[in-house]
Amino acid sequence: MKLSFANERVLAVVAHPDDAELLCAGTLARARADGAAIGLCVLCQGDKGQPAKPISNLAAVRRRELAAAARLLGAELFCAGVSDGTLSDTTLTRQKLIAIFRRFRPTLVLTHALEDYHPDHRAAAALAEAASWFCASRGHKAGAAPLTAPPALWWMDTLNMSGFVPGFYVDISPYLALKEQMLACHRSQLARSKRKDFAPLADLMRQQCQARGSQAGVTAAEAFCAHHAFKRGRAW
Amino acid sequence: MKLSFANERVLAVVAHPDDAELLCAGTLARARADGAAIGLCVLCQGDKGQPAKPISNLAAVRRRELAAAARLLGAELFCAGVSDGTLSDTTLTRQKLIAIFRRFRPTLVLTHALEDYHPDHRAAAALAEAASWFCASRGHKAGAAPLTAPPALWWMDTLNMSGFVPGFYVDISPYLALKEQMLACHRSQLARSKRKDFAPLADLMRQQCQARGSQAGVTAAEAFCAHHAFKRGRAW
Amino acid sequence: MKLSFANERVLAVVAHPDDAELLCAGTLARARADGAAIGLCVLCQGDKGQPAKPISNLAAVRRRELAAAARLLGAELFCAGVSDGTLSDTTLTRQKLIAIFRRFRPTLVLTHALEDYHPDHRAAAALAEAASWFCASRGHKAGAAPLTAPPALWWMDTLNMSGFVPGFYVDISPYLALKEQMLACHRSQLARSKRKDFAPLADLMRQQCQARGSQAGVTAAEAFCAHHAFKRGRAW
Amino acid sequence: MKLSFANERVLAVVAHPDDAELLCAGTLARARADGAAIGLCVLCQGDKGQPAKPISNLAAVRRRELAAAARLLGAELFCAGVSDGTLSDTTLTRQKLIAIFRRFRPTLVLTHALEDYHPDHRAAAALAEAASWFCASRGHKAGAAPLTAPPALWWMDTLNMSGFVPGFYVDISPYLALKEQMLACHRSQLARSKRKDFAPLADLMRQQCQARGSQAGVTAAEAFCAHHAFKRGRAW
Amino acid sequence: MKLSFANERVLAVVAHPDDAELLCAGTLARARADGAAIGLCVLCQGDKGQPAKPISNLAAVRRRELAAAARLLGAELFCAGVSDGTLSDTTLTRQKLIAIFRRFRPTLVLTHALEDYHPDHRAAAALAEAASWFCASRGHKAGAAPLTAPPALWWMDTLNMSGFVPGFYVDISPYLALKEQMLACHRSQLARSKRKDFAPLADLMRQQCQARGSQAGVTAAEAFCAHHAFKRGRAW
Amino acid sequence: MKLSFANERVLAVVAHPDDAELLCAGTLARARADGAAIGLCVLCQGDKGQPAKPISNLAAVRRRELAAAARLLGAELFCAGVSDGTLSDTTLTRQKLIAIFRRFRPTLVLTHALEDYHPDHRAAAALAEAASWFCASRGHKAGAAPLTAPPALWWMDTLNMSGFVPGFYVDISPYLALKEQMLACHRSQLARSKRKDFAPLADLMRQQCQARGSQAGVTAAEAFCAHHAFKRGRAW
After folding, report:
1. Digit-coded pLDDT (tens) for A97-131
2. Which residues, 6 or more positions from A96, have their beta carbon under 8 angstroms from its beta carbon?
3. Among A30, B80, D2, E190, which residue's beta carbon has the most beta carbons within 10 A?
4. Which chains touch D (3 or more CB pairs under 8 A)?
5. Which A residues 113-172 touch D at CB under 8 Å?
6. Are E48 and B91 within 8 A, CB to CB?
7. Which are the contacts of E73, defined by CB distance < 8 A and separation ≥ 6?
């Protein structure tokens, strides 16, 4: 039994440049292979993810790393340019995100879990949830014409799996290699792994895909939970 | 076994002009019949709920629709005048709502569930919860004198029942007709139903009252959950 | 706001002779005062609740203590006579309990929480839940004629409140004294309190009524949670 | 996005002859149309579901009704022959069910929710869960050879939706008519609807499919929740 | 079995001057006795906690009461000076709190539960959670050097225990007397108890310590729940 | 911060001969090193855990494997001798387990989670929970004298972590090697790993300890959840 993403337009809404690589890139890659259009919306600049040896133009560096990863995936890239650690669900940022939704016109949105460990991630989740409603509201003016219907919305796993109750699993076994290549683009962040105060991201990601895979009977999986709220619910 | 609302002062705090009609008007009508005083506090203008054929002075139109519905119910009406889609739990809006609480002086507040599908609804819930505490705090200056005790607070069902776990049910069978008449006042919104991107509200409302009624052994019911927080809890 | 038990027939289904005194006697007393008929069904003999100085004919002693407490309450008493520590949801015991339901014909059943601390209590809960369904099934032969409809069912608090999430509270302030008198009938059990391996039951009971009262804004309360399952749900 | 049941062998394990019609027949019909093999395992005889005017050979009547419904669906039928109201998770009944699993060899099992309203349904759920594990254990001797791997297992919705949290929805819009025809085969049960102590089953079923459909954006849906336990979990 | 706080640096982050006394002072006292360094960070001034007879310079009075209580405990005191009822998780207040974390350098943070009854408490919880992450982020500039690792974080009980599910209990029996002395320092607040709209705080606190103690087999206990989010989780 | 098991008597109650190795052996080894007495109670014979090439005297073989593992740990071994797949919470097996409790006299019991994936594991959990209460009841006759107080009880993680919400984590980093050696004793079971229908147990165990370790900031951890029921709760 397989979910097909064939006619979908999948938009991942994440906080930082490497979050999709950690939590949903396998599913995005699989959807792409199924024929879906993929969008990647990164709300923060990644400007505070400094390695031990600080990088002065970090935001620009991370933007390039991100662009490289998005190219590997074949995803259209959207950046909201908010400074790390300051993301919150304000009217202004909501409007920005609604406009992005109206440009990409997703049928499915993937975003962080509301119970995620990082304040920026939780803010991204609140923003994506709000935008998933307002993007289809005729009365809300923001960028292009409103969508004809709100997209579905799935909450992503948390890093380390703490506090997340999977609703279902997506088999990403054939796409784990691409996920690793994408993560490898984020060299500024992998550099952080060398200090003891930062987990080795690549190991963490692989370990998590294996653990979720074990729960689901495959080599590698990503876990999600569907948002069943009004008009965002779907029957398969 | 029946709950009597006889000596209560019931204030519904909702986001948009037609929200009470969808989620708690039956209970308000029943409380009114029991002899309770009814207040209806609508935080947003409803200015973005545009039908396919846009209405230029929509906020004014909806205000009139709302007033007509409130008259049917015999409710005192309070409007906070916030623009749709921008409601949030700020100090300013909180102060406005505390002042409304101090005017109406509720013993019971009905508001949206924290897990509701609409960002404005969740903001209304957060505001009502905050006001239910601060309205009785002598140190908080806002409008009239503080209440002598915080009101009880009940969370309302969500539209479509997704994600809401009922704590108890109120039998509204004799008041379903009035609920329908009240909803019928909101002509600008019923007009939206004709497009496929908007559910036929009257059907949705009736279907939900029946489903909740089936769960509770009556023709029509509304579901609620009591907020058991400090000083808002009650024993019946 | 008060729930009236006026026309109800309330049956408490508990495991041991003193369980009602600990967890629901205040509500039973109040229902009695409202004019309800009260039944008390005790499934086990209490034959293993030995104090430090063992009582040889303990089951008989406890039966007398129980009868005295039931008299104070004005409750009709039903005993199923199962040996302590062996209660389980078998067809035989189920049939016994269905027959009791068909004699007393309750409209409301109070029983232990499924998450209770004591294996006999959990078995009593499972039995009461099953009987609340089968008592109204024409095809099930057990004692008198089937009820015309299943009774409502409420789960009682746990001793010490661990693991129980109250759905609502019943104000028992005027009935706390009677509850204490009823508990005082169980002298064989109060004797156990003198050893350090057994909590002083009267203190524990009073402390719990106060704590639930504090949560609900009254001097003393008992907490319950309604079972919303098919045909056992009610609207108030 | 659609789940395809094409290569599955789907076995519904229910307690009574009409339970599949109420809770999963739409999904079974859809799976059948996808090309899946369908099995229907009914554990009880339905011998106690008496209408007002009792039917003397009720078990035989219901067996015929069931066979007619299964024919409409094109399902292979398995009956365990337990008397209504006595189903429990014993070694003997477990063995019977394991043997049925080893004959039909399911890849996906649908069964009642553990929190269902009916004691027989909960027993069926426990039995199906146990059999989903032991059917693939080489050391357990029961009927044919063990399966090479445990099937996936999905919990079905409860009647009336009380207490069930959907994990995902299956669109059954094109199969609602067949579901109604199947339910119409159970004439002995529909006869019960005429008394006020029994809900009109056909209405209840249709209302529930609509309500679940509203939550999921389709005309009619059935809700399920996947069992993620060891070896029963799947990635899609 | 005992947890030792010997080498910890424990920082309580609370909203109002008397919140630590109500919810965690016993644990702080015990940690102090174990040899831990104790910090107490109070985010609001307490300027709106007016007794019936208003105190004009209330913030100053409460600051003195707080200082006296902190002295009894031997805690380093940090005050963020926000006005009561206006606390929220803004970038500015977050930065203030991050700077406080970087001065005290906690290994363990105690803060309000996210489901607490008071809006300021919930804001304090959100701020402490955010600061527990950002305090260790090299890219975030705020006061002193970043911590080498995020502290552990425990959620405190709610006043009245409503809505809080304890993860574990800390035995504070030997420290209850000190907790009471600390609470007695807050004379402006105890004065509020005389009116019927304000619970007698000392009774409430003692009752809660006893109830949690009963759940945990000791005279007096405080309940907590560990935050298991990324890098805040710990193994004991 | 560390929990010390120094004066404890820790009894693991598991279903099959290799379950402790998979879920709690690290904690047992650490408790042993702290000076605790360790008991290992295995309820089933393991007689149905057949590898591809069946072993005729499997129960005897597994008994030897188990004894070897217990010797490595320094644990006193108790076997209840129930046949695999037939374990249930009957009066008889309960009595057997109560007698074992009264011989070993535990202060802390570790057992399977109630939500575990395996029916025998869930039965073991129910039995251990029941025994943790009845072992201290003077009225229950079973083997030696009753304990003076019920032991604490912790629920263990599930295999694969599905459905288990950790309450706290025990650092077992120094004991992972011993855990692996103990598991290696179960050669009959490791032989099963070679077939594709059985997970490679050693990998699964190591992966799980790492994943739980990642959540808790250590190399390897085991997750538990405390049972807070009456008299089984503890304050640390």
Report:
1. 999 999 999 999 999 999 999 999 999 999 999 99
2. A80
3. A30
4. A, B, C, F
5. 152, 166-172
6. no
7. E25, E28, E29, E32, E38, E40, E178, E182
